[in-house]
Amino acid sequence: MKATGIFLLLSLALCCYQGIAEANRAAGRGREPSCDNFNLSRGCTRDFEPICGTDDVLYSNECLLCLHNRQRGASVRIKHRGMCQNPNARSTN
Ligand SMILES: *[C@@H]1O[C@H](CO)[C@@H](O)[C@H](O)[C@H]1NC(C)=O
Fold first, then answer.
1. Same structural domain, 17 and 60
2. Whose CB has fewer CB within 10 Å in the chain, the N or C terminal residue?
3. Is the CB of 42 under 6 A from ligand 1?
4. CA–centroid distance, residue 93 to ligand 1 (Å)
5. Termini Cα distance of the chain
6. CATH classification at residue 88
7. Signal sequence: where (predicted)?
């Protein structure tokens, strides 16, 4: 009885999570940054490999985008590599 309830809840969560992921893709919300590649406790290099975030802010590199997400509890994704076409006034750091 209880197990069934948990199973139902789980499949519900799974369904909706996939639904949201689908919606994000459909809306062209960019791709997930590979934050596992960085040890954010150690900080980021200042390498300039510009990335335009889905918030239209230019990040000097992917690591800084990950750091921003962690520090602000944000979930900015990668819109595309390179400069933003319509940059947001807000600065990166
Ligand atoms: C990340 O860096 C910190 C500080 O240098 C270190 O203590 C920690 O073990 C590192 N974590 C990983 C997963 O490498």
1. no
2. N
3. yes
4. 22
5. 51
6. 3.30.60.30
7. 1-23
- Same domain? 46 vs 89: yes
Tokens of 87: 């940059």
22 and 52 fall within a common domain: no
Q: Which of 34, 59, 57 is CA-nearest to residue 48? A: 59
What is the domain extent for residue 16? 1-30
Find out whether the beta carbon of 41 lies less than 6 Å from any atom of ligand 1. yes
Same domain for 44 and 8, yes or no, is: no
Write out pLDDT tens, residues 37-74: 999 999 999 999 999 999 999 999 999 999 999 999 99
Residue nearest to atom 13 of ligand 1 (CA): 39
8 A C-beta contact, residue 83 and residue 92: no
**What is the reported pLDDT for 10?**
63
Q: How far apart are CA 69 and CA 47, in angstroms?
A: 18
Residue whose CB lies within 8 A of the most ligand 1 atoms, among 35, 37, 41, for a mutation test: 41
The protein residue with its alpha carbon nearest to ligand 1, atom 4, reads 42
Model pTM score = 0.68
